Amino acid sequence: MAASWIDIGAAAVLQSGGRLDGEVDGYYVAALLLEGELHAFEDRCTHDGESLTGAEVERDASTPCGVVICPRHGARFCLRTGAALTPPAYEPLTVFAARIREGRVEIGSP
Ligand code: FES
């Protein structure tokens, strides 16, 4: 359970297919919906530290996870656990607890 929750913006942005970005305890965090499931993760690929802005997200039949795909070299990460699923990334992505309350997206402070 998160110690506190940080508001990063209106849920309507996600519900129309967009992404929200915010800063939580020094992490740059991105939040999005995949098939109605809310996900939040650090906006920094563990391969070489680049932003995941523009990354595609999709379902992957090989895992129960939705995945985010780094736009630079194609590493795939599980959106639920952060696990690195394919090279060139080997370290997991940091993922965050997230919730929607009263139309706002809140990220759990780690
Ligand atoms: S920077 Fe993400 S896979 Fe290389």
Bound molecule types: FE2/S2 (inorganic) cluster
Distance between the termini: 9 Å
Class of secondary structure makeup: mainly beta
What general form does the structure show?
Answer: globular
Strand element count: 9
- Uncertain runs are none
Instruction: Provide the domain count.
Output: 1
Spatial strand sequence of the major β-sheet: 1-9-8
- Main β-sheet, in a few words? 3 strands, antiparallel
CATH class: Mainly Beta
Radius of gyration: 13 Å
Q: Give the integer mean of the pLDDT values.
A: 94
CATH topology, anyone?
A: Rieske Iron-sulfur Protein
How does CATH name the architecture? Answer: 3-layer Sandwich
Strand-residue fraction? Answer: 35-45%
SSE arrangement, N to C? EHEEEEEEEE
